[in-house]
Design goal:
By secondary structure, the protein is mainly alpha-helical. It folds into four domains: about 60 residues, lambda repressor-like DNA-binding domains (434 Repressor (Amino-terminal Domain), Orthogonal Bundle); about 160 residues, no CATH class; about 60 residues, no CATH class; about 55 residues, no CATH class. The chain contains 18 helices and four strands.
Length: about 375
């Protein structure tokens, strides 16, 4: 068997490690790691043992042609949050993560009959709107209205489910850096992804993040993110925020509901609407202000009261409502294993992931749920990074 150094590079990037960081973990030089990855040298047995433990694969993984061969998308199509602009060098790691995710999704879906995605139909409708000779703000409003109708959003609490049902793959990534708060991309195979970090956030903030990334997928999929200067990047972030606000808080319904607020400058007055729309008090007030439902003085007083009440970081209900977690991939794996469509031994042999340790084998005998079965495998760092 021939050693394939490229497999080390892919795993290193998947685990968000630089060559220097990997070298420190296994006790060798950065130059040696470079030699391994470029096929100039072959690790000895001791190094192989460290690499298999670190990356949760068996030794054969490094001698097998990897099906994760090329990037499924490029950095120019990855929309990061605004405060990540200085961390785009980490995008390469996220691209590798998406490569593995995409491969494993294909692998597990090959055992199932998967419904056809409706997201491409929504994209076609949006493209028709974007092509119209109308102002940018009118276009964003039309896209938000069309998307909410197409996705049949009845309750913002169900947004995660509605997006996944439409064909978007939503994932949580534990190793996502704090600065890379959330991001989205449309792969070359037209598979849309939204990747969420696990930084502690309120449920309503997560809902807004999902809508924000949906805005990027619909409005900015043809924009080269790498060519944008700071000003242009801030502009598309504002557009995604504007889309999210209009998508989650439809104008006609909100204007009617707003009439029930007796003191629009008081943050506490928005609590009933927060329960209904499942967005933050701040987002509700800002939407009202942009619609001209309260004046500048009321807007300033609102923010002063918000600070005095301590609502800048945490609002009422935030510690009561648990953030919704992605469920589409979980359901896929549950179906595969609960219906014995794939045996654990076959999974280990075909993908060359680490064999399950005895405690996990016992869990398999008791319960075939995916989180127990794959808890120590490489897949826990890819599809099951939120398990």
């Amino acid at each position: 068997m021939e050693f394939i150094g490229e497999n080390i590079r892919q795993l290193r990037e998947l685990f968000c490690l630089s060559r220097k960081e990997l070298a420190a973990k296994v006790g060798i030089t950065e130059q040696t790691i470079w030699q391994y990855e470029n096929g100039k040298a072959v690790p000895n047995v001791a190094i192989f043992n460290q690499l298999t433990k670190l990356f949760k694969v068996n030794s054969q993984y490094f001698f097998t042609e990897n099906h994760v061969s090329q990037y499924i998308t490029s950095a120019k199509h990855v929309a990061h949050c605004a405060d990540d602009r200085d961390s785009r060098k980490k995008t390469k790691f996220e691209l590798q993560y998406l490569n593995f995710v995409d491969y494993y999704i294909d692998y597990f879906e090959s055992f199932l009959k998967v419904p056809q995605s409706n997201f491409t139909k929504l994209q076609r409708q949006v493209e028709e709107i974007i092509s119209r000779p109308i102002k940018r703000q009118q276009m964003i409003s039309a896209v938000a209205k069309t998307a909410r109708s197409f996705l049949n959003i009845q309750d913002n609490r169900e947004l995660m489910y509605d997006l996944e049902r439409a064909g978007i793959y939503v994932l949580e990534r534990k190793s996502l850096e704090h600065s890379i708060d959330t991001y989205s991309t449309l792969a070359d195979n037209k598979r849309p992804f939204i990747v969420l970090g696990t930084e502690r956030k309120s449920a309503v903030r997560r809902t807004f993040d999902l809508a924000h990334e949906l805005g990027h997928l619909l409005l900015h999929r043809n924009i080269d993110m790498e060519l944008l200067d700071k000003k242009d990047y801030q502009q598309i972030e504002r557009e995604a925020n504007d889309f999210a606000a209009q998508f989650l808080i439809p104008e006609k319904e909100f204007v009617t509901d707003f009439q029930t607020i007796s003191r629009p400058s008081n943050p506490l007055s928005y609590l009933p609407l927060k329960e209904k729309y499942y967005v933050s008090i701040t987002a509700l007030e800002l939407r009202a202000y942009h619609l001209g439902l309260l004046n500048y003085q009321q807007n300033r007083y609102f923010y002063a009261r918000r600070s005095k009440l301590g609502y800048r970081l945490e609002e009422p209900f935030d510690n009561q409502w648990a953030p919704i977690k992605p469920g589409k991939i979980k359901a896929m794996l549950d179906t595969v294993f609960d219906n014995h469509l794939l045996a654990l031994s076959d999974l280990s042999n075909q993908l060359h992931i680490s064999k399950v340790s005895p405690p996990w084998r016992h869990a398999l005998n008791q319960n075939s749920r995916y989180a127990s079965i794959l808890g120590r495998s490489i897949i826990s760092g890819v599809l099951l990074s939120y398990a």
